[in-house]
Write a structure and sequence with these properties.
mainly alpha, 6 helices, 122 residues, two-stranded antiparallel ribbon, 70% helix, elongated
Length: 122
């Protein structure tokens, strides 16, 4: 399932916040990503309309199965790429920055090979 990079970032942020705090509201996404409240509001509405998230009456955000699948995939890519890059000698700060860029553009084939290789060496 291919969606825009910005949507992947929002979904990944929701997943990370949920893991950390147990619940997610739009303000948490604002604080995590550093975007404006109006920008996050528009994005949440689009994600909801496209069936990736749902919001309850109190404003709490939950990932729906398609959104959760994308978020977990991006999160896995992110963490795996950080491990590979730091193993190769890249500083953790740079590895985190670069992983954020690479995770959205790397092909499934290349990522799968890197992940397999990572399991063998780490």
């Amino acid at each position: 399932m291919k969606i825009q990079e910005s949507a992947e970032n929002y979904l990944e942020a929701i997943l990370m916040i949920r893991k950390e705090k147990g619940q997610v509201r739009s303000i948490d996404v604002v604080n995590e990503l550093g975007f404006s409240k109006p920008s996050v509001s528009v994005a949440m509405k689009q994600l909801e309309e496209n069936g990736y998230i749902e919001r309850d009456s109190a404003g709490y955000i939950s990932l729906l199965p398609p959104g959760k699948q994308i978020a977990e995939s991006i999160f896995d890519r992110h963490n795996t790429l950080i491990k590979i890059l730091t193993h190769l000698g890249v500083s953790e700060k740079t590895a985190r920055t670069d992983a954020c860029k690479i995770e959205h553009h790397i092909s499934d084939e290349t990522f799968d090979v890197l992940k397999k290789h990572c399991r063998q060496i780490l």
